[in-house]
Amino acid sequence: MSDATVIVVDDDRGIRTVVREALLRAGHAVRTTDSAGGLWKLIEEGIGDVVVTDVLLPDANGLDLLPAIAERRPGLAVIVMSAQNTLSTAVRATERGAFDYLPKPFDLNELCRAVDSALAGRKRPAPEPVRSLPGDDIPMIGRSQAMQDVYRTIARVVPTDLTVMVLGESGTGKELVARALHDLGPRRSGPFVAVNMAAIPRELIESELFGHERGAFTGATARTSGRFEQAQGGTLFLDEIGDMPPDAQTRLLRVLQSGEFTTIGGTRTMRADVRIVAATHKDLRRLIDAGAFREDLYYRLDVVPIRLPPLRARTDDIPELAAHFLDSAAAGGLPRKALDPSAISWLQAQPWPGNVRELENAMRRLAALARDDIITAAACEAYLARSGADVFAMPGAGLQGVDPLKTQTLESLVSEWLDARLAATDRLPPDGLYERLLAEFERPVLEAALRLTGGNQLRAARLLGINRNTLRKMLVQRGIAPRDSRLASR
Fold first, then answer.
1. Which of 132, 384, 399, 482 has its CA at a distance of 20 to 30 angstroms from the CA of residue 292?
2. Could you tell me how far CA 404 lies from the centroid of its own chain?
3. Domain span at 230
């Protein structure tokens, strides 16, 4: 039996009883109360070594009590439990100095471990001044246990400048994590700059990241700032870091080691005042073993890993996600729709290889095409099952010689096309396969963007998610005239 007392605060009698019994079995003395007033009375009397409190109390918000508790009893650790289960709740709890945050329902053994950690004298985070945070409109949705783990990690690293590596399949929301770290962190008044390594020709990545001086290479007619310079004072999001070529990896490693960089062809050293968030859907360990990624760079980037679960591992979140996307579709001018229970069950039974991005696209399709305001499983089957679980593969699209209706993702289309082409010969293709494939796939994407925007390069660059200078370089490299009449007439 320990000599420590745990105060449990919750207006739900059942929860108080269950938590009390668990803590008693763990050998702790327990005092319970159903209100903030009761908690404050015990604190004023000097009772309690750890507080376990709900957020929503009848007479106060538990999070609002944390700064006052820290001022009155600096050594008193507070563990917050909440059924709200949102990213903003986790961040607010951490910011106000909570020792730990436990989303309901929680594992009682986890609660006991948190209490033991607090009693063991581990230093809890000092409360920081409470900032004005966005509300629950932070674009990360999900109350599943898998997402709660993500929220808790984000909350712990938000106030720091630590480098974060976001891991997960395509479409899981890696950029949302990067934006949350920026928008909720101390650099939120600075710029958020995102760069996708897979969308930039490999020979241009160093110039894109670090900028170049006039005359640094053929075609460099003026000085151009790079993404590091553009992100000064803010956050630089390096998406698809696994696609970074070796030379650029070496240069990035030097920046992470020294905190300084120079432009291509430049001599002036600049301080890299940025927070780095990297992301990839690839297995970097395998790339390291294959000699395609630097191990020392991996350790510099993988300071705090955040692994996003695929949608198939968090199907409990599908109803909330789907409703949110239908609301967004309605806000964008599409008819307002809702899902009935059969539709939700149908959606939860799908594999979703494209993850949350695919679900969003599916909801927009249903909003546009489903005839009834209430969407049923039959409607989902009619409008989503035609091309399998993937809603990106539209009829008539696909690589030459590949049936789009028999595949599920662009990745599988490319894989099938490659298998067919490489199987046609018993010899290895000549070196440079990656660059040849990149050129083949990049050109139609650029042409499609220009067609959609009438040849307007600024709008096309925004559509592609790159800056206009990068687009111009890519057009020159691929020999595409922005206002080619063929692009407008196709």
1. 399
2. 29
3. 160-307
